[in-house]
Amino acid sequence: MSDLFQQESPLVQVELGDPIGSAPRIEEKPFLGYINLRGRSDDTRFLAGVLKVLGCEPPVEANTVVDSKGYSIYWLGPDEWLIVTPAGGQGQLKAELLSALRDAFCSVVDNSSGLTMLHISGENSAALLATDCPLDLHPREFKPGQCAQTRLARAGMTLSPLPDSSGFEVIIRRSFADYLLLWLQDAAIAFE
Fold this sequence. Notes:
Blueprint: E1 25-29, E2 33-39, H1 44-54, E3 65-68, E4 71-77, E5 80-85, H2 90-100, E6 106-110, E7 115-121, H3 125-130, E8 148-152, E9 155-161, E10 167-173, H4 174-188
Antiparallel strand pairs: 1-7, 2-5, 2-6, 3-4, 4-5, 7-10, 8-9, 9-10
Helix pairs in contact: 1-2
């Protein structure tokens, strides 16, 4: 029966080649886990449960991301976070969070089947995104440790600078992945 359910990247039919010239590199980071966590950041039971499982409290400063114990925790709103897990780690994380938060008012939802991540890197990565992203992506304004929900080519995304400032993480819905990748590849021609 397990042969019937094989995991497949949403970009399985799109070729990801090496960049030409000074065009940015575009890579998919497939099969990561995505847990949506909701709760009250002023609830001590909620904060203690999250701390127990993740090794840190969820970020409460708007548009920030923290890394802890191999997880990245993105602030999405005053009571909402997205936790990105290593591939296959979402089931265990969800179970641990539900157990640790059983006495807190919260929601823990596995969105892994609906999201994927792209890394866009290289010297022109910000310029490529700026062709249709309304954010100021200059490193003095949008730094590692920050994140934002925005859009690119009419597709909603969560965007964050890579820790080494060499590019960006783009978290998008699987249903928009091939459209957005093809759009990015077309826009990248200007940098070849």
